Amino acid sequence: MPSSLLDADYCRREFLKRAVLTTAAGWSLQIPPVASAAETAGGLQVAPFKFDVTPPIGHSCCGGWIKPIEVVDDGLEAVGVVLLGAGKPIVLCAVDWTGLLNQAHVQWRTALAEGAGTTPDRVAVHCVHQHNAPMACVEAERIVAAEGDLPHILMMDFFKQCLDRGRSSVARAIQEARPLTHVGWGQGKVVGIASNRRVKRDHDGKVLAMRGSACKDETLIAMDEGLIDPFCKTVTFFNGEQKVASLHYYATHPMSYYADGRCSSDFAGLARKQRQQEEPDCLHVYFTGCSGNVAAGKYNDGSQAMRPQLTKRLYDGIVASEAKLERVAVTAGQFAWKTAEILPPPRQSLHADKIAAQVATKSAPVVSRNRPAYELSWLHRIEKQIPIVLSSLHLGGVKLLHLPAEMFVEYQLRAQRLQPDNFVCTAAYGDGGPWYIPVKEEYPNGGYEVSVAFCEPEVDDVITAGMTHILQT
After folding, report:
1. Which pLDDT value is given to residue 353?
2. What distance in Å separates the CA atoms of residue 66 and residue 62, rounded to the nearest whole number?
3. Which of 73, 90, 126, 443 is most enclosed, with most CB atoms within 10 A?
4. pLDDT tens-digit profile of 332-342?
């Protein structure tokens, strides 16, 4: 993969020279061709990989506006699989970080693609979204570093080390790839974790209060769960009777407590690690679904005692999802990889000059300066015409959907309705550049999530069009 793929001008030229479909709102949606199974050389194989991405002491957490890493309670990992034998290799990866945004996400996909001998458009990288972890945006780091008095968003030497580890880890894994003969799927209900954040509203539907990852307001706790997807979904790759890798999908913010300087993969990572310890010969991967408006607030008071309880509840859901796997033999002809590229313009309220002035206001709190750097990074990305890639892997009647940022759970449920006869698993928190992505009906209702969304409501239309296309057989 040429290094020029990271060059913004190259990306812009490549994006613009291809045919695009444009919605009435002026949003771009590009549909690249589907990879042909005729490219297949040999049988299907799966290559599990895992590498350490634990940040060094002093590294910022969640963008630099909460306490940086002071101690590591448990390490952070990037975990995934390479699928071989159905065209160019396909890479699926989950990372125990808060986010990978804009150029940082492109660089991760490119590094893993180089390790696998494929192209970045056939790589899906998603963050689990724990908050005591890095939120990587190369451009935002450049912006804050230029100020000279702000905490770093990203230690670039560490970031580059992670890219090198990923590249080499994937390459090594391919050398030990195992036959992929069967795919299994199942789901189990998770009890006592997910609850909708946007539950207290006035008679017009406007949001008055929210439940976060933790909540101590008895009134909010007493309210119903609200709209969630209660199921953990699992897809397992087999070599004969042997489980080689299990991919787990569940939609909730994965934090019990945070902002204390203690690096942790939190309850989602701990549940995965517990399952991994039980089944060392099967790699377990955890993807966070569309959770922009879903968290554990109804069931979590933020105390340290709740972390092991939430861990057990999610672990139980993972085990339940694997208890009765449906299982079928697979061939390369049943595999398809489909992508769509979107380039949603920013909210009209975002003005580069005003945002740059916020970042430069030295009397303002760090959060009021670092966070706008992410807005400015999004504007710079749009100027350079670097699209976001949506992708879907079809495994016969199983479809894995890969979406960006902090999507509302409605998108995940919508994807399932679009394919009622198929088993659809959704991973969000891919390219985090757009920050939150509410459904368009929720924009008039306000609330925190809407206030920090970087796109206009029409992003709903273009993402829905994109995922409708890539989920079609």
Report:
1. 96
2. 7
3. 126
4. 999 999 999 99
